[in-house]
Design goal:
Elements (H helix, E strand, L loop, with lengths): L9 H20 L1 H9 L4 H6 L4 H22 L4 E2 L6 H5 L3 H4 L26 E3 L4 E3 L4 E3 L4 E3 L4 H23 L8 H37 L4 H6 L20 H10 L6 H12 L1
Antiparallel strand pairs: 1-3, 2-3, 4-5
Helix pairs in contact: 1-4, 4-7, 7-8
């Protein structure tokens, strides 16, 4: 279920962990932060001195949670298809009459085999050239986690983005309130230079994570994937649909509920044909 932590992507994962904890240590140990926070009653340093460690401890635990989620998403099997299912048609519950319902412009599901690994692909799956596997409900291959985002780890990927965004915004607040006054710009930059670098870096990462989280929540609410959204004109089961037509869309609430709360493999062929029958 999980990859080898020392396998492919080891350097990327190591860089992520080092960057996360280096920024955290700068936020708590940089002298400009400590001096400024000691003056203000509501900041973390005074809470440490008075024994009120709830906020700093919670922040560190949140950082630890984000790192654990990162490794879980990075090392988890995203839904690799490792073998051919000889009883695929019985498993899918798709009849021959339903097979004939597919428009002539699309390929037959029964003949849909991957040209790379030669395994039969369930609907919404795609072969990843980087991972060298077909992935169920393929979304995209993320270079930062060095893994695909698919059926098994997509919800954890979204949760990781949410926790990471919370950590970044909290860290941005800590860094912003840590700036120390200086009578001149030269002295201010000399005093707060390292903290300013952290603020710029954290602000940039916050913007990236915010955009990623927003786009994924939007696509999840529509029950579509990044791959389907970007390449629907090339996907056999979608290219005959209208621009605003999605055969997997069951309404925003049901889409979100199914994504976050329903576990297990979804037979998308049944959803596809059920939607097609409803439209007829």
């Amino acid at each position: 279920m999980f990859k080898n932590v020392f396998g492919s992507g080891f350097l990327v994962r190591t860089a992520h962990v080092i960057l996360t904890w280096v920024i955290t240590l700068i936020l708590f140990l940089h002298d400009t932060v400590c001096v400024c926070v000691c003056v203000r009653v509501v900041e973390l340093r005074q809470q440490e001195e008075t024994g009120q460690l709830v906020q700093p401890v919670f922040f560190v635990l949140l950082v630890l949670l984000s790192v654990l989620l990162y490794f879980a998403v990075s090392l988890m099997d995203p839904g690799f298809i490792l073998s051919d299912d000889s009883d695929l048609h019985f498993t899918l519950g798709v009849t021959e009459e339903q097979q004939d319902m597919i428009p002539p412009t699309t390929k037959s599901l029964r003949q849909r085999r991957c040209g790379h690994c030669l395994l039969q692909q369930p609907m919404r799956s795609k072969h990843c050239q980087t991972c060298q596997h077909c992935v169920r409900r393929y979304d995209h291959h993320c270079p930062w986690i060095e893994n695909c985002v698919g059926e098994r780890n997509h919800r954890w990927f979204v949760l990781y983005l949410a926790v990471q965004l919370l950590v970044l915004l909290w860290g941005l607040h800590i860094a912003w309130t840590g700036f120390r006054y200086a009578p001149s710009w030269q002295l201010w930059l000399r005093t707060n230079g390292m903290l300013l670098t952290v603020v710029v870096l954290v602000a940039l990462l916050s913007l990236i994570v915010l955009l990623l989280l927003g786009s994924h929540l939007y696509l999840v609410s529509l029950n579509t994937t990044t791959w389907e959204f970007m390449s629907r004109h090339r996907i056999s089961y979608l290219k005959h649909c209208g621009a605003d037509e999605n055969p997997f869309d069951r309404g925003t609430f049901n889409n979100l509920w199914g994504f976050f709360c329903v576990w297990g493999t979804v037979v998308w062929e049944q959803v596809y044909f059920r939607e097609g029958s409803d439209q007829v």
